[in-house]
């Protein structure tokens, strides 16, 4: 089980990386999903837009794109791309600290890899509840 953080042409302040890696492993355990490898790539809007166009044929900005790379449905191997530009803008929009919004998106990607979706209102509501649950668990100390 390996969790890695990569920064691509942006500045990001991700504190307590070792603790966050351990917590992400716990999130997968709690959701009953095996974890083989997980890589987060923190990048710019422009970089993520190109990924969105190339792989998903979406010509829109987004805060996150998640790829499941494993052929084994019981064991996740994934890449999660997060736009720091979107995270900062969304933190302002929702009037929350950037750190909180960043962690919300980090957990959001992990939850996608655990099988949660957000295409319908009902799915999005469940996803938001799970994000809040893990934010509360992570920041309880």
From TrEMBL:
<dbReference type="InterPro" id="IPR002036">
    <property type="entry name" value="YbeY"/>
</dbReference>
<dbReference type="InterPro" id="IPR023091">
    <property type="entry name" value="MetalPrtase_cat_dom_sf_prd"/>
</dbReference>
<keyword id="KW-0698">rRNA processing</keyword>
<protein>
    <recommendedName>
        <fullName>Endoribonuclease YbeY</fullName>
        <ecNumber>3.1.-.-</ecNumber>
    </recommendedName>
</protein>
<dbReference type="Pfam" id="PF02130">
    <property type="entry name" value="YbeY"/>
</dbReference>
<feature type="binding site">
    <location>
        <position position="112"/>
    </location>
    <ligand>
        <name>Zn(2+)</name>
    </ligand>
</feature>
<comment type="function">
    <text>Single strand-specific metallo-endoribonuclease involved in late-stage 70S ribosome quality control and in maturation of the 3' terminus of the 16S rRNA.</text>
</comment>
<feature type="binding site">
    <location>
        <position position="108"/>
    </location>
    <ligand>
        <name>Zn(2+)</name>
    </ligand>
</feature>
<keyword id="KW-0479">Metal-binding</keyword>
<comment type="similarity">
    <text>Belongs to the endoribonuclease YbeY family.</text>
</comment>
<keyword id="KW-0690">Ribosome biogenesis</keyword>
<feature type="binding site">
    <location>
        <position position="118"/>
    </location>
    <ligand>
        <name>Zn(2+)</name>
    </ligand>
</feature>
<keyword id="KW-0862">Zinc</keyword>
<keyword id="KW-0963">Cytoplasm</keyword>
<keyword id="KW-0255">Endonuclease</keyword>
<keyword id="KW-0378">Hydrolase</keyword>
<keyword id="KW-0540">Nuclease</keyword>
């Amino acid at each position: 089980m390996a969790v890695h953080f990569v920064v691509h042409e942006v500045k990001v302040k991700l504190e307590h990386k070792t603790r966050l890696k351990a917590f992400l492993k716990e999130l997968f355990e709690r959701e009953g999903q095996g974890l083989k490898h997980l890589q987060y790539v923190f990048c710019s809007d422009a970089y993520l837009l190109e990924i969105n166009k190339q792989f998903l044929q979406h010509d829109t900005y987004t805060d996150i794109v998640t790829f499941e790379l494993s052929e084994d449905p019981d064991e996740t191997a994934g890449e999660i791309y997060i736009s720091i530009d979107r995270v900062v803008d969304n933190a302002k929009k929702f009037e929350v600290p950037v750190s909180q919004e960043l962690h919300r998106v980090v957990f959001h990607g992990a939850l996608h890899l655990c099988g949660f979706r957000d295409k319908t209102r009902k799915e999005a509501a469940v996803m938001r509840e799970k994000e809040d649950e893990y934010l509360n668990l992570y920041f309880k100390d």
